[in-house]
Amino acid sequence: MNFGKNKQDELDQSKNFPPHCYTMPSNVSYPLPYLLKTGLENKFILLHISFHLKSVIPKVESKSFFPERNIFSSRSDSTCKIPLGVTVEPTEICTYEKSGQESSDDTDGSHDGFHDNYFDVDYCDSKPTNVGSSRQTLPVFRNAERTSNDNGASATQPAEGNPLVDPLLRVTGAGSDEPVNVPTIEALDSTFSDGSDLHEGKYFNTKKNLKRKLSNIAMKGNFEFRTRKSNRSLWVIECIDPNCSWRLRASKFVPESTKFVIRKYVGVHSCSLLNRNANHRQATYVVMGEQVAPQYVGVEKGPGPKGVQTFAHTELGAQISYYKAWRGRKYAHTLIRGSPEQSFHVLPSYFHMLEKLNPGTVTRIEVDGESRFKYLFLAFGVAIRGFRYMKKVVGIDETFLKGQYRGVLLVATAQDGNGQCYLLAWGIVDSENEDAWSWFLTQLKEIIGDTDELALISDRAPSIKKAISTVFEKAHHGACAWHVAQNIKNKFKCADIMGSYWSTVNAYRCEDFTGYMIEISNRYPRVAEYLENEVGFEKWYRCHYPGLRYNITTTNMVESLNSMLVNARDFPYVALLDVIQEKMYKWWNDRRIVAMAITTPLTPSRESELRPRFAQSNGRRTLQLNPITYHVKGGELEGVVDIFNKTCTCKEFDIDKLPCVHAVAAAHHAQVSVYNLVSPYYTKDYYLLAYGETIYPVGSQSQWDVLNEVGTRIVLP
Fold first, then answer.
1. CA angle 85, 91, 95 (to 5 degrees)
2. Minimal CA–CA distance to 352: which of 364, 344, 341, 340?
3. For residue 437, what are the contacts with CB-CB under 8 A and spacing of at least 6?
4. pLDDT tens per residue across span 74-94
């Protein structure tokens, strides 16, 4: 409907305007692009929009504009959002036309009563009908009933109970006073909700929590928002589309509180689908890290960057780059495991709690003159006491860490009676050198002692070799046969000699060893010279070893532990120690359960190793030489067994301390229990004693009870 240039003309035309129009259902938001598309495909560029004012006696205001110029002004509180009608007028003139009559509440001429390109209209039940005219009027809304007053002027009667809504709009045709009921057309609702549970008055403990919530909503809804205003006490955001109705305003509940409350909230979007964006600004690495963080709880590895990308796409509907996924994963690690700097800060308190909850635990922290970290050492009291029931062979090795501050993890392990890795002590040093190894071995010496029964097995790194000879005066040092083999392959490029080499390593008798060395010398004389002169027979061959190393020829126990920690090597130090501690108390509990369930005198692995020797001894002929000495014949090799000193000429019984087939035959002939000939380290009783105690975790940091002088100790990265 078009209005005249003065008030009287407006009222007259509102009384007698032609009923050539469409009407639409209510309680929907009607987009301007849809209005422009309708009108029987007419090409128009001029719109006339009439509004209903917020006053006790409503007035009518007319606005005209060219839609392609996008002439929209800000929302004004002087008008409601319910237009009475939109007239589409075909024209060829591309000029801006504005009504000369403005509302009394719009003195600056900036108000057009238009809000975000959308119209909120009220309900009408009639079906759509095109009334038809050369001019198409879209739409006429059933918001009020227009009648003529006694002076002939038009007036708007408010609906009962609501001054802005009337259940029936009655219009009259030109020149007639008879009311005409105007049919309606079905309207297309192009708005959509953000799908959240937010509402005005909802509280959040912090502004950060509120921002995290909104970021999640934005990602799941594939829309973006921007911040209009933000400070410590206020946060105002809106949809990135300036014409969209979605917005939120939140502020502190009270000035001195950290809680934020939503003051204003419009959760309905009226923007185009063209503004939907899966690669949006709210999908930051921080948000990604917070979302994916639960997947790293209780695990060492968790999803990698590609896994984070997949999670963001499937769960949040966001497309993120590999780099952002990598940063999100790193941030998630920080949330779950703490930052590297924080790890150094809590080390003294962490060690204090370990000592408090696990009596006998030994911890050490070494710093330089500027309180910067150098070394740490940790050995649980239960492991120290349990070492009494282990073979006195300790493997030591290192693995390089990959965290922000790098470092080297040093580990000392033993082998229990069941052939499993027994973690004795470990430490972290800033770098692998002689000083670091000397410091670590000095701490180790304090808990295991230094005797000629002790054997230390390691690789042939010069720093380890020199540190062992300096710290341990009585213990014997042996070389890891596996590391020697790797050196041979790398230095001499002769992998085909490895069969002969391992036969030499595993030989018990010196005669067999000599035969294999001759074979190696004939094929690769330089390798034989290297093994004899550079390595030394006494370091890697057990027949020549001056001490007792049992059946342990390598540091595979340590290597297996390193392989288990491969995913934790980039953790902060405290998080890495937590992983090791968790493995230890799981091992202790599981192996204690196994030990309590054993029904034989020996551990399961030694029992399974001894049983076949009973069958092999059945065909042997045994002759008694004296009350303790027996000659066993048959098979490929004969043997003379001393059942009192637990020796045999095959040397297998001497070195492994487990009866060989000759010793089993001699025990049977002497009517002695073969279990009496087994080293106590292989028995069920020792196995149970080694794991009889419990390792207790430190719990969450909030539960720590730390002395002030411990908590204030400074350890810097």
1. 90
2. 364
3. 410, 463, 464, 467, 468
4. 333 333 333 334 444 443 333
